[in-house]
Amino acid sequence: MHRMPLFTQDNQDVLDFLQQKLGNNWQIGTPLGIGKPNPLMNALYHHVVKKPDIVMSLFTALSLEVPKGDSLLEQRFLSAFTSRYFKDYPELAYIEDIKKDRVPKHIHLKEFYFQSGQFLGTPSAQQNYISCNYTHVARDMVNQGINVIVQMIAVDRQGEKPRYSLSCNPDLTLDVIRIAAQKKCPRPLVIAMVNESLPFLEGDAVVAEDFFDVIVDNPADYFEPYAPPARPISVVDHSIGLHVSTLIQDNGTLQIGIGSLADAVVYSSILRHQQQTDYQAALKALNIKQRYGQLIDQHGGDAPFQDGLFAASEMFVEGFMHLFKAGVIKRKVYEDAEIQQLLNEEQITEDVSALTLTTLVDQGIINQQLTAQAVQRLQHVGIFKDCLSFSNGTLYDAEGNKLGHDLNKPKHLKRITSHALNQQLEKGAVLHAAFFLGSKRFYQFLRDLSDNERQLFLMTPVSQINQLYRSEAIDRAQRINARFINTCMKVDLTGAAISDTLKNHQVVSGVGGQYNFVAMAHALYHSRSILMLKSTHGSGKQRESNIVWQYPECTIPRHLRDIVVTEYGIADLRGESDETCIQRLICIADSAFQEDLRTTAIKYGKLRSDWLIPAAYQNNTPEAIGQALKPLQKNNLFGAFPFGQDFTEQEQQIIQALTWLKKQQSSRWLTLKLIASALFVSAEKDMQPLIDMMQFQQTRGFQEKLMRRLFIRALKKTC
């Protein structure tokens, strides 16, 4: 039965609707990332704050926040930058209340993934964090009694009737509805807010209007989706990305995340595909092939991507856009496991001919006698034209001409070949993803896709992309030679990885889908999990190794250890003994910490006492990496912003100055020395626009005057 949703422009109508349908028990789910309808969410939150008789729980993740900064200097800079870059982005009201511990007791805000570092030291957020795999979130939401989903959606008004898409977030919404039905729980209400600025994407994300109970469509509430500014790619990032790029196999599958490390992988992969001379020079500069040639030959490559890659990633990020434009993401997959397998085995190609049909018959995929079901199946992957029909046991073209049904009869086969076949397979996709997040450039790319291009990028529930259980045969056929590439914070010497939580149980981000993809790498034939790790963090006396003997938290257990990559090299841990894993991880640790790691492992009997660090790995220093890549950087390679940036030239100068200042405060002595050096500095004329941007034209009080002098001191050092 067709359900007609309530259409409205007024958020108050939603509040009245929920009060009528739910009474005073509001268990709300709203998507992670950019799928939150911020104006509607704020209306809901402010309404319930004033209504203590309503008990509200909000289940979500990745509540994106416009950066504010900690110090006075950071706050001044970010105030100027965010007013320009984020403009009128409607911030989520509940974030500030969480941070200031003023959320009313009748409201419970629960998240399963944080924006990195956002809620460190925030008791209510840490107490209400839910730790679970991304694939289990929908199940847990249903179990906790979710009764309404509130989501931002995209609209396509080109046809006679509007089409609606869950766009950036089909990830959990579809799974929640499905699981609720399986458990015979009441179907949660689905409240949608249309935003014409949100790109319209295809796949499972496209739903009928009767999927929704309420659709709010008010142009006054349209806004540009949150777009995190691009982060610079450091030399360390580039070294890691270069190593990882050699482990990606042509004719394979790729999953990556967001951030500077993922961008570095994308950059080096494009360099590999388009600029072989420069790429080989970079590999030589870091001795990558000399050290890991056998591993690269077995599990990766350094040649251009002739067949290309298919993207199977929970997150559709800007990096995939660049890989698509560069011709790396181009391997199409099709929604038929047996036909996909024939493509994998090169028994058929994407070019359709009589040979395609005879091969399908020979392999027992279709019978010689066509049936309505077989015709529909062949149309589904574009072998047969969509305009064909099948009735009374025979195939007809669009004009009603009889084509036959028996592929064993030459006349029938000739007519079918001439009139029924497309030239190439159709309805293939180069990417499956569960949600998207990226830059303003990325969102514009999605908006500008042609109708045909849009069909290449399909949005799916997270249950489909992050695991194999729902449609294993087709997933296995599509996700060949997969490389699941993620980032972690620390790795212990036995190969266990820590990606989301500090040793005091403070959650930095969350598990998300990382465990899912690591487990899938072990489940899929010839697939690998690659964890990227910066070998150290901090500076000066606070500098620490991220490869450690042990750590009290664990995201990926050691029995799922696979490949770990730092800026110093690759450690292949799969199927190896503890001792071999320890040796290989020490070899990619920073040399300042290698000996301590070695002696600790020997002390506890996990490493034989006569093992010494090979000479080739005894110069693992940031200086060595920087020196190796310096000649290439002089040739405009391995830059900080190879894909464009979001900061103006003046903003970049301020960032450089503030970064330098922060490094000078790594110890009390350095801080005192810095202050002393800043006491008598004076501004140069060309610094005035930067001083004005930081609102230091006039200063009041000692702190502002000191901050102004420190800022000028930093400008003199960096500009």
UniProtKB/TrEMBL annotation:
GO biological process, alphabetically ordered: acetate metabolic process
MF terms in GO: acetate CoA-transferase activity
InterPro entries xref list: AcetylCoA_hyd_C, AcetylCoA_hyd_C_sf, ActCoA_hydro, NagB/RpiA_transferase-like
Residues spanning the membrane: none
SUPFAM superfamilies: NagB/RpiA/CoA transferase-like (SSF100950)
Occurrences of domain Acetyl-CoA hydrolase/transferase C-terminal (ranges): 438-600
Protein name according to UniProt: Acetyl-CoA hydrolase/transferase C-terminal domain-containing protein
Source organism (scientific name): Marinicella pacifica
